[in-house]
Design goal:
alpha+beta, three-stranded antiparallel β-sheet, 6 helices, 10 strands, elongated
């Protein structure tokens, strides 16, 4: 056998060996993939770490007067301990007004009666004012809510919807003029002194002037997960009486009137 033939045979043997080895390698890789295709076990700690958090918090309302008071007072303490921006809107509307003999003075016209009603409404604080307060402002006057006790309350209830808890509280009137009830919630209310000052602003005078507050109510909406206030509304009625009013060139009475008042806090933002 000559050298040329030997070389050809040797080359064929080498090629067959290489092809065989490649085929074996390919089969071996396929087998490996099949045998290692199995569930991967993750440690318990890691599972807890990567588990998504459910952000859809469902609020639960407190039950019973004691629990409701704790919930309200706790939220108020949290508010006092932090800094917030918020918007305050005060609204006072004239619900009724009777000026007695002042309505029928000699020469009284519709424009006179309208001007008289507007003047009386202004004396009684009829207006609408919206103010924005920022963290760092002195909010003592702006946000005058105080903690409540059972003796302050005549009725209360709580409800939950979505992520919020709503508390509705009726404040008990323990004084003839109702000042004790409204002072638990705000300092922005009409008193005899303020009423007389308003009358004086018109260069007028009165006898027997008195102010009484009633139907004081508090409604708060609180975020269940953070205990932050979402909305606070104070509502109450104010009644006014003057046995006689001397206004410019006219004098008469009696004057009986009432207003509906609301103070609403919204847009709370913690800083």
């Amino acid at each position: 056998m000559n050298n040329k033939l030997i070389k050809i045979i040797s080359l064929l043997i080498v090629l067959c060996t290489v092809v065989g080895l490649c085929a074996c390698g390919k089969n071996q890789n396929e087998d490996d993939i099949k045998t290692t295709n199995r569930p991967v076990t993750v440690s318990t700690d890691l599972t807890k770490t990567v588990k998504p958090t459910d952000k859809n918090v469902v609020a639960v309302a407190p039950e019973g007067e004691e629990a409701i008071l704790r919930y309200y007072n706790g939220s108020l303490r949290l508010f006092r301990a932090n800094a917030y921006d918020f918007v305050k809107k005060e609204t006072c509307t004239l619900a009724s007004c009777s000026a007695g003999s002042l309505n029928s003075v000699d020469g009284a016209t519709d424009s006179y009666r309208k001007a008289l009603r507007n003047a009386l409404g202004d004396m009684m604080g009829v207006s609408s004012l919206e103010s924005t307060y920022f963290a760092g402002d002195d909010v003592t006057e702006a946000f005058g809510l105080r903690e409540l006790a059972a003796e302050n309350i005549s009725e209360m209830k709580a409800s939950a919807e979505g992520s919020n808890v709503t508390l509705e509280i009726v404040i008990k009137k323990n004084s003839p003029d109702g000042g004790d009830a409204i002072s638990l919630l705000t300092r922005d209310f009409m008193t005899n002194e303020r009423f007389n000052a308003k009358i004086s602003d018109y260069d007028a005078s009165s006898t027997g002037a008195s102010v009484k507050i009633s139907n004081v109510r508090l409604k708060t909406v609180i975020d269940y997960s953070t205990r932050n206030f979402v909305e606070v509304e104070i509502s109450y009625n104010t009644s006014f009486y003057m046995s006689n009013l001397n206004l410019a060139y006219v004098s008469g009475g009696p004057v009986n009137a009432s207003t509906k008042n609301t103070i609403k806090y919204t847009d709370f933002k913690e800083n």
